């Protein structure tokens, strides 16, 4: 037994040396085999179990490593294996569990602090994450300082982008493309798009320089690394309205087929937002990229939420009503206070012509969430206007108390009431807004006895109210507003003129008194450059005509003043067969079809003259063409309107002056004239 034990100890030592050698060479698969052999000799060896967990982690087998830790909890205590357990949970996207493991560790090592910062970033606890990285940078001195600064700048960029926090200047030297990229993201969050684009261009340049130094890196590898920088550039172009350039750059990135599922999802989502309700087939293909495996772990909550919103909108645009309702209902359950899911549901109802139901849905949300009531009521008013219920829309808008005094709201309400010819309600809107500013000024000037001028917005509302009342004949009501304006600025001649004009219709005596305040004509003289005025383009024609006047004509012009020349009336042309004794046809100006005596064309007139039957056969009308029979037959009376009829009588009324009685003879000429575009008559 002792010999066997000695042999086992010798083989274990050899195995341990093998594990050590493989670990130094990075061959963890072979090291794992040796560790397993050691565990066959001593199954509860703490060091062997620890080494097995490390080997599994190095090989990417995080589930198996965590299983080993959980099955040997008595041996592998939290003090021994806390970092490895937390790291496995972090890599398996069990972020909350990783945080608990780190916090339960008895000793916070540097490795745990590094992992703690990563966990806080994934949980979007940016303030705590910022503090953790600052502590690490302050208390660490090793070769990973540049990586920590990069992570610190990423936290600041996330705060600026998602929490709209003004980023502080960290004083970091942007020597790497990662630091430049994060700085650009922070600028985008602040809305400084031009500065952000310059930072991204610098990041692209630094990236190319650093990667081109490695001979093993190909151009395809460089383009793959630059994909995220180019994606952010395209996003800036999209925000700037350069959608064509952005779309082209987005498609170039997709053609590279980057391995980052998060990047592909963001780009696909942005292309969908550019397409909107157009190019729906392309959007349906792109939306598949947003459903790739692991996307939910790569993006922030707000990014994932935006993607889900766009999926619901795409379902609405593609007439998938059930899918749209399902997605919007899911979004509403996740974020009950969010406005967008309700708006999507209302839009879908409107597409289904259920406007009343859409308004009811919005009203219920406004009652439950007073903070969002203003935006909801604006949407409700828009729906009412689309239905033609302008008065109801005005009632909804006036119920938004925080917007009642805003100039835009006052303008909209007055315009809508004017459209409905409800002048009293429009004036009431002006009155309420002016009263609000009076009360606001009284609150701000409480206890102050000196004269306080009114705000520009207040004065603008009073002026608009006065102009509106004058326009609609409310002189007496406009006078009080004009007097208030003149009191604020007695030197305002325009207001004084309006006031005098209004009083002249109500109280002429008062108008005369006020007219004394008007400035004299001397003070109102305009400084005009006469030479410049004469040399202007408008005076050229007058100057040329004046140059033609000479001698007596010029003196006559000076003596008599300007005389308007009378234009000679041209005599109208009369027809050749005009007879002044005959009264013209009063309907001669009307087209023939619109005249009272028009009877229409006789259909089938020429049908009898068309030969029918087989070729060579005679018809009933052939006798009319037989000359011998015509000569022997007694003469018939001429047809009305024919040449014989006109020549037989000497006192016949010309056809332009007589009133046709529907005779068929004149219809042929009338029809020919009508084809030429004649309107009848002279």
TrEMBL record:
Pfam families: SRP72, SRP_TPR_like, TPR_8. PANTHER family: SIGNAL RECOGNITION PARTICLE 72 (PTHR14094), SIGNAL RECOGNITION PARTICLE SUBUNIT SRP72 (PTHR14094:SF9). GO terms for molecular function: 7S RNA binding; ribosome binding. It comes from the Eukaryota. Residues 544-600 form the Signal recognition particle SRP72 subunit RNA-binding domain. Residues 564-574, 666-682 have a biased composition (Basic residues). The gene is Srp72. Gene3D superfamilies: Tetratricopeptide repeat domain. TPR repeats lie at residues 227-260. Residues 543-682 are annotated as: Disordered. Residues 576-597 have a biased composition (Basic and acidic residues). PROSITE patterns: TPR. Belongs to the SRP72 family. GO terms for biological process: SRP-dependent cotranslational protein targeting to membrane. Residues 628-645 have a biased composition (Low complexity). Keywords: Coiled coil, Cytoplasm, Endoplasmic reticulum, Repeat, Ribonucleoprotein, Signal recognition particle, TPR repeat. It comes from Pluvianellus socialis (Magellanic plover). Residues 95-150 form a coiled coil. This is Signal recognition particle subunit SRP72. Its main location: cytoplasm. One of its GO terms (cellular component) is signal recognition particle, endoplasmic reticulum targeting.
């Amino acid at each position: 037994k002792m010999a066997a034990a000695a042999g086992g100890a010798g083989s274990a030592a050899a195995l341990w040396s093998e594990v050590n050698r493989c670990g130094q060479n990075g061959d963890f698969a072979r090291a794992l085999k040796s560790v397993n052999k050691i565990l066959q000799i001593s199954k509860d060896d703490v060091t062997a179990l620890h080494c097995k967990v490390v080997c599994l982690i190095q090989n990417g087998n995080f589930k198996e490593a965590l299983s080993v830790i959980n099955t040997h909890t008595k041996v592998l205590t939290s003090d021994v294996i806390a970092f490895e357990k937390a790291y496995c949970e972090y890599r398996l996207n069990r972020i909350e569990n990783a945080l608990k493991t780190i916090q339960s560790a008895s000793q916070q090592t540097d490795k745990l602090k590094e992992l703690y910062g990563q966990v806080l970033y994934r949980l979007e606890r940016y303030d705590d994450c910022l503090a953790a990285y600052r502590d690490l940078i302050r208390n660490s001195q090793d070769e990973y300082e540049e990586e920590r600064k990069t992570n610190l700048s990423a936290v600041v960029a996330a705060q600026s982008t998602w929490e709209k926090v003004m980023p502080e200047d960290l004083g970091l030297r942007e020597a790497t493309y990662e630091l430049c990229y994060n700085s650009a993201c922070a600028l985008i969050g602040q809305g400084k798009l031009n500065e952000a684009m310059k930072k991204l261009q610098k990041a692209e340049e630094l990236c190319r320089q650093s990667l081109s130094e490695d001979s093993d890196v190909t151009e395809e590898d460089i383009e793959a690394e630059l994909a995220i920088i180019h994606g952010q550039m395209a996003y800036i172009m999209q925000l700037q309205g350069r959608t064509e350039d952005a779309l082209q750059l987005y498609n170039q990135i997709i053609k590279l087929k980057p391995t980052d599922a998060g990047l592909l999802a963001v780009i696909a989502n942005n292309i969908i937002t550019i397409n909107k309700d157009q190019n729906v087939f392309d959007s349906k293909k792109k939306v598949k990229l947003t459903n790739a495996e692991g996307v939910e772990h790569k993006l922030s909550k707000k990014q994932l939420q935006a993607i889900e919103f766009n999926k619901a909108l795409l379902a609405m645009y593609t007439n998938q009503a059930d899918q749209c309702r399902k997605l919007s209902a899911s979004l509403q359950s996740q974020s009950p206070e969010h406005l967008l899911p309700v708006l999507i549901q209302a839009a879908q109802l409107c597409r289904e012509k259920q406007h009343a139901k859409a308004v009811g849905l919005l009203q219920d949300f406004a009652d439950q969430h007073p903070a969002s009531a203003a935006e909801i009521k604006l949407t409700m008013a828009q729906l009412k206007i689309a239905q033609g219920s302008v008065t109801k829309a005005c009632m909804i808008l006036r119920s938004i108390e925080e917007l009642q005094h805003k100039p835009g709201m006052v303008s909209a309400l007055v315009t809508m009431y004017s459209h409905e010819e409800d002048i009293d309600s429009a004036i009431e809107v002006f009155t309420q807004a002016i009263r609000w500013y009076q009360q606001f000024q009284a609150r701000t000037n409480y206890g102050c006895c000196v004269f306080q001028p009114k705000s520009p917005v207040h004065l603008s509302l009073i002026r608009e109210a006065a102009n509106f009342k004058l326009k609609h004949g409310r002189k007496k009501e406009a006078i009080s507003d004009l007097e208030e304006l003149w009191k604020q600025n007695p030197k305002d001649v325009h207001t004084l003129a309006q006031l005098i004009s209004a009083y002249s219709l109500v109280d002429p005596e008062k108008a005369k008194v006020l007219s004394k305040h008007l400035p004299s004509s001397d003070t109102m003289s305009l400084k005009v450059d006469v030479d410049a005025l004469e040399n202007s383009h408008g005076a050229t024609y007058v100057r040329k005509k004046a140059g033609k006047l000479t001698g007596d004509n010029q003196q006559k012009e000076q003596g008599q003043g300007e005389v308007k020349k009378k234009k000679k009336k041209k005599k109208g042309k009369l027809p050749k067969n005009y007879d002044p004794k005959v009264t013209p046809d009063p309907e001669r100006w009307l087209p023939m079809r619109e005249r009272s005596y028009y009877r229409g064309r006789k259909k089938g007139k020429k049908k009898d003259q068309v030969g029918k039957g087989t070729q060579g056969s005679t018809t009933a009308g052939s006798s009319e063409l037989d000359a011998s029979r015509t000569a022997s037959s007694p003469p018939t009376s001429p047809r009305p309107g024919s040449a014989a009829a006109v020549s037989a009588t000497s006192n016949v009324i010309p056809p332009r002056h007589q009133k046709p009685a529907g005779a068929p003879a004149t219809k042929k000429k009338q029809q020919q004239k009508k084809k030429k575009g004649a309107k009848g008559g002279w």
